[in-house]
Amino acid sequence: EVVFHRLNSGRYGNSICAVVYEGADKKVCQFSFTCNGDMDRPREIVAWNQAEELAAQIFTGEVRLRNFTGGATSYHANYVKPYWAPTLKRTTQIGKHIFYRGRTSAS
């Protein structure tokens, strides 16, 4: 969802690949799996394949984006405290991940 929310915002790239690989060339990855090698060796291949299929279905419009994250464009694991987290509005927590979106005057 975060990738699609970023893509739809127009502030993070104009393609899924641009969004996902933002910063990877500088080793300042927006998504750690693009820099740490996890994309080349998924730990749970069935889940990875399901995620790829779902993303394709959302991208083609076959499946609607559910928005479980409340419009989140950022997230992090609950065991880290990134400097940017207090500048955003927390939307939800799913498992060990905390999700955020930009603050607006209405929030």
What can you tell me about this protein's structure?
With 107 residues, the protein is an alpha+beta fold. The chain is built from three helices and three strands. It has helices spanning 2-9, 16-20, 45-60, and strands spanning 74-77, 89-94, 97-101. The two termini are 20 Å apart.
List its traits.
single chain, 107 residues, alpha+beta, 3-stranded antiparallel sheet, globular
Please work out how many helical segments DSSP would assign: 3
Sheet with the most strands, sense and barrel status:
3 strands, antiparallel
What structural class do the secondary elements suggest?
alpha+beta
Helical residue percent band: 25-40%
Radius of gyration: 14 Å
In short:
With 107 residues, this protein is an alpha+beta fold. The chain has 3 helices and 3 strands, in the order H-H-H-E-E-E.
Topology:
Layout (H helix, E strand, L loop, with lengths): L1 H8 L6 H5 L24 H16 L13 E4 L11 E6 L2 E5 L6
Antiparallel strand pairs: 1-3, 2-3
